[in-house]
Amino acid sequence: QVELKPVQLLSAEDHLEHSLAIERRRIRLGYVQVFQKLMQESNKEGDFYTCEEKDAVSTEHTHVQSTELVLPPHANHHGNTFGGQIMAWMQTVASISASRLCRSHPILKAVNMFKFWGPSFVGDRLVFNAIVNNTFHNSVEVGVRVEAYNCEEWIQDQPRHINSAFLIFNALDDKGELLTFPRVKP
């Protein structure tokens, strides 16, 4: 790791932006702690979620998998895949997943907990898995996980988890009104 020099704050606006950046980081780190706590609690024996609503839709049919081959135009001069390219592929697969539930064209509203866990390179195969996690009246959350394989890893079925995110979508009906999403059953 390289130690960076402290930022020199010159104006009141610089001080404000610096303070806001510190607060955003604090919130991000808080999300990680909350997520880890939820995962620990959900792993307790006998603790599982059931949706008893008779109209609840199974999320099984919202699972979408896509595979992309990283080519030179998808990467920088070092051969690392552009983060924006990965984000675009993630948005596509998540949109298809959401559309299977709303039967419309979903509109991306937010991206949460977007995290790069590791790099990918020209020649890697990227496998994108998306599934609807939950619905919230007029919005739907889709989780996307990205795994990378080079040729050797592909043959041995040893993926590298390189990215995860939660994408939030809305959808509109023919009149431009927000669609209501059905309750889901995981």
TrEMBL record:
Q: Which gene encodes it?
A: Acot12_0
Alphabetized Gene3D superfamilies for the sequence = Hotdog Thioesterase
What is any one of the record's Gene Ontology cellular component terms?
A: cytosol
Q: Name one GO biological process term.
A: acetyl-CoA metabolic process
Main localisation: cytoplasm
> Which protein, by its recorded name, is this?
ACO12 thioesterase
Query: Which Pfam families has this protein been placed in?
Result: 4HBT
Q: In which pathway does it act?
A: Lipid metabolism; fatty acid metabolism
Identify the keywords attached in UniProt to this record, alphabetized: Cytoplasm, Fatty acid metabolism, Hydrolase, Lipid metabolism, Repeat, Serine esterase
Q: Where in the cell is it found?
A: Cytoplasm
Q: What CDD domains does UniProt report for this protein, alphabetically?
A: BFIT_BACH
InterPro entries listed in its UniProt record: Cytosol_ACT, HOTDOG_ACOT, HotDog_dom_sf, Thioestr_dom
Catalyses which reaction?
butanoyl-CoA + H2O = butanoate + CoA + H(+)
Has the keyword Transmembrane helix been applied to this entry? Answer: no
Instruction: Show where the HotDog ACOT-type domain sits.
Output: 60-175
GO MF assignments: acetyl-CoA hydrolase activity; carboxylic ester hydrolase activity
